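User: quick one, fold this
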Amino acid sequence: MNTVKTDLTGQIRLEDRHESQLEHGAALDPTPVNSMHKIRLNDAETIRMEMARLYKDMRLGRIDTQDGTRLAYVLDMVRKAHETCELQRRVEIIDQVNKIRKLKWLLQRMPILAMS
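Assistant:
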């Protein structure tokens, strides 16, 4: 397991930061407003990938763990909402298939009902 080296104040040492995190010796804001990329969270895989990216950014010190924890919580709520919608869609499909099967079964029995 990689450990992050910190100075006496608990901050990541500047010499251990990635070059993109340095600006004239000062650390850059980890999420500049103008350079944020569009995050698509439209399926479970992209949500999982965003959670993994968030975890990595917290481990590398790019995102404060308290902020990262909040973002992870929101991502988990998005995941649960996606999961609920997906399960609802699947249940509706199963209901439709069962109705079709029931109708087919009834149609097969119709001649028998008419004869009796």
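User: anything notable?
Assistant: The chain is about 60% helix and 5% strand.
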